[in-house]
């Protein structure tokens, strides 16, 4: 079997046993990317062939001296292009940072690099992670490997497309309102948003700081656990980083049943607006969960209907503040020929940001402005508390929740670009877990009649990624949707 | 329906330090009105006595220990500057002579 078809676990086993070298892995992926990338456009920047082969050689040479391997050693990874990589440009999908080369690594990169993986490149995203389709990337959209006329989802669409198209063995994304889970669902791969605070945000370019969280996008649940192990841990450089112990997450993904676990089915997630085909697949999945020992229980999360309004006020307010730093002074784009400072700020921001970013900055600025703060921003913060309390109440009774990831399969490129509100409404099922800071995973649960993947979301209590991974693994083993792979047509 | 006027669009753009073209003002005015109409549903929710959530972190924010550590060199800090001179970031003039 071609190397690029292997999962992270399979590739790891072959590398650790000495059956294959890092050099062979690098060459296999360079070839695969050269064949597929022109169609899928997963990456904004690629590590040069020369650098990648040098890195691979250094690993193969060093292996004799080190006499042990690390879990990600030699593993070819894609990194979302809003995560700072020292010496490698980090654009955030924006003209504003088109030539920005970070002088430091994000904490997750420091952790990765200690294990000596092969960093293949930086993956595409909606500008500053604002979007659900990658269509807001200043460098053009990525394509869904299952059907190139459809979106790969967003904002981590490049990461999800790269994993689905075998352009990397695993990738990292970031999730603010669904930006890991939704593209994973669109592309038929696994995407895990960890609990808020579980993974350091240091070096992740800030969008909405009370919501942003880094997590893995992978081919299997086991692979997600391997990646999560490498990402987690307390970081003094992120003041919201959790001071908590973490288990070996790969041990969570072992059992083929979920006996003794209570599965909550929130009624609000199956209301109006859910595509009947998606609803059917989720119902099938609930039966599978029952078949492997889960006790199914209907629950209610009454504040769900308020989640989108709450999210788009809080996230845009935080974004308007976070993105104030792009002023053309210390780094990034600067508009030419400004005669004085204020004019330079205005011209820089007007020329550097794309339309969706401007729209969200405008909305957030409005929500925070004098006279509207109480009615919009403070109100949204109160409703956020209600949403969190809904979850607290149901998690007294159930161990995790099962729901769709998005109301429809991946929509067509261009379909919702002119209607921002329509685009926002597609985030209905992923936003509540973001607002409450909960761990949630998206795993494949079937295909639409048009052959597009459909995702299943499992959401757990804070810091119980182990339960979410256990259930996701047991479901995956009982179904094997992964046996069907996309055929990338030229 | 919430209406955000042309004048309000201009005011918010100024606060956000954005220059919008006339077509942008019209486009954003319409789209923001639509979005604000949607988010106005929150006014129906009774939230009296409910505390505000600013962060879902399950701990107080902390400060790292104030110990010396490696920072960026001047060259590194200036490497991405749009314009620099003699170790300074250069900006257009702020005050008239």
Summarize this structure briefly.
Chain A is an alpha/beta fold and 490 residues long. Chain A has 15 helices and eleven strands. In chain A, strands 1-3-2-4-6-5-10-11-9-7-8 form an eleven-stranded mixed β-sheet.
Give an overview of the whole structure.
The complex is a heterodimer of chains A (490) and B (97). Chain A is built from 15 helices and 11 strands. Chain A is an alpha/beta fold and 490 residues long. Chain A has an 11-stranded mixed β-sheet. In chain A, α2 packs antiparallel against α3 and α5 packs parallel to α6. Chain B has a domain of 39 residues: Glu-tRNAGln amidotransferase C subunit, N-terminal domain (Histone, subunit A, Orthogonal Bundle), CATH 1.10.20. Chain B is built from 3 helices and 2 strands. Chain B starts with 5 loop residues before the first helix and ends in an 8-residue tail after the last strand. In chain B, 34% of the residues lie in helices and 4% in strands. The mean pLDDT of chain B is 91. In chain B, β1 and β2 form a beta hairpin. At the A-B interface, α9, α10, α11, α12 and α13 of A face α1 and α2 of B.
